[in-house]
Specification:
The chain has 421 residues and is of the alpha/beta class. Helix content is 39%, strand content 15%. The chain binds ligand SAJ.
């Protein structure tokens, strides 16, 4: 089978991964149906616009829509291959596979002999085999794979997405892919799909290893960020500048400490390690502790703000805090699982100080802040800092680097990202 066998591909889920994947496939001449359960998303894409912020994506999507190669829909359509890229949230210590299950059920009626299904959503080990069992129960007329040696009618593989928000279009093409087919033939067919647009290596394995590989990559990063975050607490106690320390330590050829921050956010690194803890709670001890360390960091930052407010000279005027950044990381508009947002929301709940928020990457404050009488939003960082008593830098967005040290004179500065140190 060559790439020529995949002329029509249906991508389920048009979020941060599904939409770029659908657009890139269409840009390579594949006829793509993109499916999303949100009518507004479907309408936006069919207008040639996009609903997320990602460099260069709008142009690629608009071009694909204009050529008639990308069409968004609420319903899947018959295709040669289906790619599932829907979210897998984590609630109460358990992976929530509702969306993956719903996506599999929605594509079941459209399956035909010879089809390929690729799951890209982050999943606990064993999920791809479970999806195959679900489909087998829904389509008894077709044979689905359960293990090596099977000769199925429909091939199924797990291939995790690994792209970094903000660099999605580059990484989608350049990164290596790990492709885990339930059988070797499933892997081979999935390889042919990725060969359409990937320049990276297309590495094959089984589905379970591929599922675990994705979780391992994000847990590795989480553990390493936890090390940096723990170091920041240790250094604070010992009066050592953690940023200088890390820069010096990283001069060693075999040391590469990551950067401390206000906590770990986003839908991936703050979530995926829990899938491993859930699957092997007794064994996953460092992974669990790292999650706990990173989750505790916002509380530590809030304690620093409390201490800065308590250190003010007595005055009748309400304290004013400039809160710089809400996104989960630099130069993106994504507020999912953001420690910066969590900190800002808690400050707003305190109610005893005014909060001036500057988040240059979003147009409107989320309701949790917009509805608070203590919170105002300003687009300009200098305006936010102006009358502030405390300047709290939560995200290392590019515009914040331009702040002059003289603007911070006389203010309590809590720089959680080491941008100004
Ligand atoms: N962070 C730190 N210190 C650091 C690096 C990151 O505090 O030194 C924080 C960020 O501020 C952010 C969080 O960690 O809050 C996660 O950011 P990130 O840039 O490390 O990762 P994500 O969540 O944007 O993307 C990750 C990537 N995984 C890895 O690098 C192993 C990406 O390749 C995955 O595709 C993505 O998760 C995903 O979708 O799983």
């Amino acid at each position: 089978m060559t790439a020529i066998g995949f002329q029509r591909i249906c991508v389920l889920g048009l979020g941060y991964i599904g939409l770029p994947t659908a657009s890139v496939l269409a840009s390579r001449g594949v006829s793509v149906t993109g499916v999303d359960v949100r009518q507004s998303v479907v309408d936006t894409i069919n207008r040639g616009a996009i609903h997320i912020l990602e460099p260069e994506l709008e142009a690629v999507t608009a071009h694909a829509v204009r050529l008639g190669l990308l069409r968004a829909s609420l319903q899947p359509a018959a295709a040669d291959a289906f790619i599932v890229a829907v979210p897998t949230p984590f609630h109460d210590g358990k992976a929530d596979l509702t969306y993956v299950d719903a996506a599999a059920r929605s594509l079941a009626p459209h399956l035909q002999k010879g089809n390929l299904i690729i799951v890209e959503s982050t999943c606990p080990p064993g999920t791809t085999e479970e999806i195959s069992r679900t489909l087998a129960s829904l389509r008894p007329d077709l044979a689905f794979p359960q293990g090596e040696g099977d000769l199925p009618d429909v091939h199924i593989a797990y291939c995790p997405e690994r792209v970094l928000p903000g660099r999605v279009l580059t990484e989608l093409v350049e990164n290596n892919r790990v492709i885990g087919g339930i059988t070797a033939e499933c892997s081979r067919r999935a390889q042919a799909v990725y060969a359409i647009f990937c320049k990276g290596k297309l590495l094959t394995t089984n589905a379970r290893t591929a599922e675990m590989c994705k979780l391992t990559e994000n847990a590795f990063r989480d553990v390493n960020i936890a090390f940096a975050n723990e170091l920041s607490l240790v250094c604070d106690r010992l009066g050592v500048n953690v940023w200088e320390l890390i820069a010096l330590a990283n001069g060693h050829p075999r040391v590469n400490v990551l950067q401390p921050g206000p906590g770990v956010g986003g839908h991936c690194i703050a979530v995926d390690p829990w899938f491993i803890v859930e699957a092997a709670p007794e064994e996953a001890r460092i992974i669990r502790t790292a999650r706990e360390i990173n989750d505790a960091k916002p509380r530590w930052v809030l304690d620093k703000v409390r201490a800065a407010l308590a250190a003010r000279s007595p005055t009748a005027v309400r304290a004013r805090i400039a809160c710089l950044g809400l996104a989960f990381k630099a130069n993106v508009d994504d507020l999912r699982e953001s420690p910066a947002l969590q900190i800002a929301e808690e400050l707003a709940r305190w109610g005893d100080c005014d909060l001036v928020v500057c988040e240059p990457f979003i147009k409107e404050l989320p309701p949790s802040l917009a509805e608070s009488s203590c919170v105002t939003s300003v687009p300009n960082v200098n305006e936010a800092i102006g009358d502030a008593d405390v300047v709290l830098l939560l995200v290392n967005h590019k515009p914040f680097a331009e702040v002059q040290r003289s603007q911070l004179a006389g203010k309590a500065v809590i720089d959680t990202r080491g941008m100004w140190t």
